[in-house]
Amino acid sequence: MSQSGNTADVNQATAPEEHSLKDDLKDLQFSEVYDLNQRTIEDTYADGPLIQDVAPLSLLRSEYEANDNHVFVKEIDWLINNGYHDFRRVKGDGDCFYRAIGFAFFTRLIQNPDKDLAVVTTLSTLMATANLLEETGIEKLVYEDFYTEMEALIRWVVVPREGKSILTIDGLLEYFRDPEGSNVVVVYLRLVTASYIKAHVEDFENFLFHPETRELMSVPDYCNRVMGLGKEADHVEIMALCDAFRWNVEVAYLGGHSKDAINFVKIPDAPYPGFDPVFLLYRPGHYDILLK
Amino acid sequence: MASIAARRLGKELKEIHSEGCPVGINLVKADDFETWWFTIEVMGESEYKGEVYTLQFRFDGQYPISSPAVQFVITDGRQAPIHPHVYSNGHICASILGNEWSPVLSVTAVCVTLQSMLASCKKKERPADNDRYVRHAPDNPKKTQFHYDDDTV
Q: Are the CB atoms for A247 and A25 separated by under 8 Å?
């Protein structure tokens, strides 16, 4: 299930300021916006591929316009006017965050003007993540197949693989559309996310809320949840994963929280050098890839 | 390139052969990467003292990303243990085989978890809905949407 986020999720991620009575009134309206949004997401994702072709954001705009959802229409207009013209839909199967960020990151790697250096840097970061897994008690038997495949995928950006020429965006799309391919990436990213949380307990322990009940969870329980497929990601997972991989991500949060401009959340606060950020489009309970 | 399931199962099998199974667990057969059988016995004092059961694992090409289909074997005189989470057709209601499965688990880890599920049992009885479930149960327990209302399993 991917569409199970709630208003509290979004508030927590986007509006750190005090919650006032006025906001509560706004939330009432927001829950209606939310319901409409869920229906739109469900209607448009049913049988599509895991990652869809690039589509203009104006298409998304027209879907919300047809549903009379003016909050989203206004926000999408802002994105279009600020240079974000396209997006890729990612299947809402509970793994959308990991699949979206994985695909977006590999896209950046392929597009990097100094690919050789970027690949070497990424391989050494990958190696560090394997150490992290090891240190947090994940057995080699468990992670090594996923690690080996991640390594091969990264190398493929600069060297041919098994008779196939070096990885292009189209090749990447084909790889990610095959569940056997992109689930390997999803699983590895999930393992690293869980291990990073375990290794930085003091940073995260007060924020490990169950996505449905909103109850505080223990670190092992939370991390077990992160490691299973189909379990949605929250702000905690995004921060942990980006820190572990030294990725820069900017998330555009839609859903009626910003008056004028879209609230982009940059993770981390100070970007890591060497890589352009990837952009994600968040609508309550769901992530897609946003493109400039 | 061998499938991820074959690579992983190959390693698990190698580890079982070189290091042996945990106490009370024995490999019966693992001739391919589709179906494995183990015997499972609860060590020490328990409701199941001296009883030996057979567990069947079935794997698809997405193991360990997807969970194995695990059940007790009930053919050739074998029986499923009488337990509040084990149906008489051998199907098991355990969250780690369903929504709490993660690729961190392994075949022996599942065996050990089921062994401790039996060990902690206070009263031998079938699930309340046993007859109804068994009448309509699919062949593959993974096709059942169990409700895990008891976290003590």
A: no
B93 belongs to the catalytic site: yes
Q: Of the candidates A149, A191, A228, which has its C-beta nearest B100's C-beta? A: A228
A51 inside domain:
yes
Contacts of A179 in chain B (CB under 8 A): 62
Stretch 113-152 of chain B: residues touching chain A, C-beta under 8 Å: none
Whether residues A184 and B65 touch (CB distance < 8 A) is answered with: yes
Domains in chain B with CATH codes: 4-137 (3.10.110.10)
Closest Cβ opposite residue A184 in set B4, B61, B99:
B4
Q: Residue A42: pLDDT band by 50, 70, 90 thresholds? A: low
Q: Which pLDDT does position A3 carry in this prediction?
A: 40
Task: Reduce the DSSP state of residue A112 to 3 states and report it.
Answer: coil
Say which amino acid occupies B37.
W
Q: Does position A16 have pLDDT exceeding 50, yes or no?
A: no
Is the CB of residue A153 less than 8 Å from the CB of residue A185? yes
For the four alpha carbons of A186, A188, A190 and A196, in that order, the dihedral sign comes to negative
CA of B79, closest CA in chain A: separation in Å? 31
* Structural domain range at position A261: 7-291
pLDDT-derived band of residue A225, with 50, 70 and 90 as boundaries? very high
Q: Is the ipTM of this complex over 0.90?
A: no
On whether any CB of chain A is under 8 Å from the CB of B68, the answer is no
When pLDDT is cut at 50, 70 and 90, the band that residue A13 belongs to is very low
pLDDT of residue A12: 38
Domain count, chain A: 1
* B87 to chain A, closest Cα gap in Å: 25
The pLDDT mean for chain B works out to: 92
Could you tell me which chain A residue has the CA closest to the CA of B106?
Answer: A142
Is A2 domain-assigned? no
In the block, tokens 């961190």 appear at: B104
Out of B3, B4, B100, name the one closest to residue A224 (CB). B100
Q: For the domain that residue A181 is a member of, what is the CATH number?
A: 1.20.1300.20
Give the burial class of A75: count Cβ atoms within 10 A of its Cβ; 0-12 exposed, 13-18 middle, 19 or more buried.
Answer: buried
Question: B147 to chain A nearest CA, in Å?
Answer: 16
Q: Is residue A222 part of a domain?
A: yes
Separation of alpha carbons A236 and A220, rounded Å: 14
Single out the residue of B70, B84, B80 nearest to residue B120, CA to CA: B84
Report pLDDT for A4: 39
Chain A (112-171) residues lying within 8 Å, Cβ to Cβ, of chain B = 138-139, 141-142, 145-146, 149, 162
Q: Is residue A1 part of a domain?
A: no
